[in-house]
Design goal:
By secondary structure, the chain is α/β, with parallel strands linked by helices. The chain folds into 2 domains: about 150 residues, 3-Layer(aba) Sandwich (Rossmann fold), CATH 3.40.50.720; about 220 residues, Rna Polymerase Sigma Factor, Chain: A, CATH 1.10.1740.10. It is built from 17 helices and 12 strands. Helix 3 links the parallel strand 3 and strand 4. Helix 2 packs parallel to helix 3.
């Protein structure tokens, strides 16, 4: 009698941020491995037309969209296609996707602080969370770790940098770590002077040299706020003293991050800049999926470059240390002020360098507080946003 090979259980996915760059990459992995993965719940933002296409293709059991008008359009499109899928709206919809009973893992790929509440809800429900929404850990890393520990849920790093650290730490004792080194491309203005940066336009800031990302994250990369936020995220993901987390500029974006050990060994994870790699690693862990994607050719690449990050031209790398020293309130204020400032820059209301200036002005007024509940965190976040908007309006006046 021959060996009977039982089919692997299909992993069921709830996907938040389906129409963003992480969402699209996740769905590409799902489509490549239909025998392993199924999307059972899906949430998107304002791009209703793309969500309609995705709903028809993947036919989840629940959909969520940001606005009521989008929900009506989506519902009618589904009816026209002969599909009967419930559609929910706003944060309640995102939370419903995150806690969908049949889901085994939640891909948290919403952008900004709006991703915190559904991420928290998923962990409270005992769901494993593959986390691309760095703002969740920045705002509430301590709380989310506590919730995951109490429910038995696992937080899986999805950002390329944190996935690289996760891979380089695999099987190693955290006590043997000397430092974590996050790499940064340096963005489109790595070689700009401060005078040149002062005249940068939103259109220029949206042209990232290596990665295809959404507008907010792309601008964060240009200011290196993205890397500053990743320092806070790494502090909570890997239970690491923030002083042991550094940033190194690496323009090629091939080495995604490194871990230096106390014996002097340095382990790095390398790969082409393609978010499908860390997503596949998180979905397949502890296995690696056989991906038919372009492979890294080091001989063709020829060389890899590394530079010290310049905190004078990119003050976010200095301000994040101030935020960390101010505890939970500092990290929340750092993120909230940045989100407001980035939106004001996108609208042409402040200059590129004023993004960091706005964040610094807010941080200088922060009194250290630590929070133990989600409500406290969200209330403080809302308070800082109001303060930041007021500061921007006074500056413009």
């Amino acid at each position: 009698m021959g060996l009977i090979v039982l089919p692997k259980t299909i992993k069921k996915i709830a996907l938040l941020g389906a129409t963003g760059s992480i969402g699209r990459s996740t769905l590409d992995i799902v489509a490549r491995f239909p025998e392993r993965y199924q999307v059972v719940a899906m949430g998107g933002g304002k791009n209703v037309h793309e969500l309609i296409v995705l709903a028809r293709r993947f036919q989840p059991q629940l959909l969520a969209v940001q606005e009521e008008s989008g929900a009506r359009e989506l519902t009618q499109a589904l009816v026209d296609s002969g599909l009967s899928i419930p559609v929910m709206v706003g944060q309640p919809g995102a939370v419903a996707v995150a806690t969908f009973a049949q889901a085994d893992v939640v891909i948290a790929a919403m952008v900004g602080a709006v991703g915190l509440e559904p991420t928290y809800a998923a962990l409270m429900a005992g769901k494993d969370v593959a986390l691309a929404n760095k703002e969740s850990m920045v705002m509430a890393g301590r709380l989310l770790n506590q919730v995951a520990a109490s429910t038995g849920a696992t937080i899986l790093p999805l950002d390329s940098e944190h996935s690289a650290i996760w891979q380089a730490l695999n099987g190693e004792s955290g006590k043997g770590v000397e430092k974590l080194i996050l790499t940064a491309s340096g963005g489109p203005f790595r070689d700009f002077s401060l005078a040149e940066m002062a005249s940068v336009t939103p259109a220029q800031a949206m042209r990232h040299p290596r990665w295809d990302m959404g507008p907010k994250i792309t601008i964060d990369s240009a200011t290196m706020m993205n890397k500053a936020l990743e320092i806070i995220e790494a502090r909570w993901l890997f239970d690491m003293d923030p002083e042991k987390i550094e940033v190194l500029v690496h323009p090629q974006s091939i080495v995604h991050s490194l871990v230096e050990y106390v014996d002097g060994s340095v382990l790095a994870q390398l790969g082409l800049p393609d978010m499908r790699l860390p997503i596949a690693y998180a979905l397949g862990y502890p296995e690696r999926l056989a991906l038919d994607l372009p492979k890294l050719d080091l001989a063709a690449l020829g060389q890899l470059e590394f530079f010290q990050a310049d905190a004078q031209r990119f003050p976010a790398l200095r301000l994040v240390r101030q935020a960390l020293a101010a505890g939970d309130s500092g990290a929340i204020a750092f993120n909230a002020a940045n989100e407001v400032a980035v939106e004001r820059f996108r609208q042409g209301e402040i200059g590129f360098l004023e993004i960091a200036e706005t964040v610094e002005n807010v941080l200088n007024n922060v009194v250290r507080e630590d929070f133990s509940t989600l409500k406290e965190i969200l209330d403080y976040d809302a308070k800082v946003r109001q303060l930041t908007e007021a500061k921007v309006q006074r500056h413009r006046g």
